[in-house]
């Protein structure tokens, strides 16, 4: 199983480490052609506007949409969540528009308001250690979206079929259970196409 991490910005090496701990091969993705050999893709954190510009510059928008249309799993964390959303509250143009969610950028405030907490996540046996850094929030979800976790009654993780998002950074701790959850989504996809 080969899982790519979009390497335009963000904690690419940390995601690759978590993916490898979860038992898959992690690959830094810098060119659209690499998507063809992947079973799943992670869009990491960073700054969503910058990631969106870089995705347009290097022609990743259409390429990732095509990847997703095949039913291949995509996982967006923090800014990756914003990039995957159909609607961004600030009026910013949607980037990939893959997932039927509305998001609020920097909903948790600035860098100094960053924090760590344990979260209960649907589908995981144990509470997950989550790191929130200038994190976005999911403010509305469509009918097909399954809410996986909340923090103070706000949505911080969700899934829609083969699409997974989290407001927080699961790659910045030693807990790789959410990456394992993602690899299980990929196994389900692989079983369906065989």
Automatic annotation (TrEMBL):
Active site annotation, chain numbering: 78 (nucleophile), 169 (charge relay system), 171 (charge relay system)
Record-linked InterPro entries: Class_I_gatase-like, PdxT/SNO, PdxT/SNO_CS
Gene3D superfamilies: 3.40.50.880
Keyword Glycosyltransferase attributed: no
Segments passing through the bilayer: none
Binding annotation for L-glutamine: 46-48, 105, 133-134
Catalysed reactions listed for this entry: aldehydo-D-ribose 5-phosphate + D-glyceraldehyde 3-phosphate + L-glutamine = pyridoxal 5'-phosphate + L-glutamate + phosphate + 3 H2O + H(+); L-glutamine + H2O = L-glutamate + NH4(+)
EC number: 4.3.3.6, 3.5.1.2
Keywords: Glutamine amidotransferase, Hydrolase, Lyase, Pyridoxal phosphate
Superkingdom of origin organism: Bacteria
Pathway: Cofactor biosynthesis; pyridoxal 5'-phosphate biosynthesis
Role noted for this protein: Catalyzes the hydrolysis of glutamine to glutamate and ammonia as part of the biosynthesis of pyridoxal 5'-phosphate. The resulting ammonia molecule is channeled to the active site of PdxS.
Subunit structure: In the presence of PdxS, forms a dodecamer of heterodimers. Only shows activity in the heterodimer.
Protein family according to the UniProt entry: Belongs to the glutaminase PdxT/SNO family.
NCBIfam families (UniProt xref): PLP_synth_Pdx2
Protein name as catalogued: Pyridoxal 5'-phosphate synthase subunit PdxT
Species: Paenibacillus motobuensis
Gene behind this protein: pdxT
């Amino acid at each position: 199983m080969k899982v790519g991490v979009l390497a335009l910005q963000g904690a690419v090496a940390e995601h690759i480490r978590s993916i490898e701990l979860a038992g898959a091969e992690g690959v830094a993705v810098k060119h659209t052609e690499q998507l063809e050999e992947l079973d799943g893709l992670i869009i990491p954190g960073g700054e969503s506007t910058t990631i969106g510009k870089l995705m347009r510059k290097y022609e990743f928008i259409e390429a990732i949409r095509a990847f997703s249309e095949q039913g291949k799993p995509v996982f967006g964390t923090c800014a990756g969540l914003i990039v995957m959303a159909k609607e961004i509250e600030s009026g910013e143009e949607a980037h990939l528009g893959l997932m039927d969610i509305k998001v609020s950028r920097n909903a948790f405030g600035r860098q100094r308001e960053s924090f760590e907490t344990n979260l209960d996540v649907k589908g995981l046996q144990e509470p997950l250690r989550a790191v929130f850094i200038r994190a976005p929030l999911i403010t509305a979800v469509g009918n097909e979206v399954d809410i996986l976790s909340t923090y103070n009654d706000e949505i911080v993780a969700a899934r829609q079929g083969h699409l997974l998002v989290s407001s927080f950074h699961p790659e910045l701790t030693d807990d790789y259970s959410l990456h394992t959850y993602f690899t299980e989504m990929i196994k389900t996809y692989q079983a369906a196409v065989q």
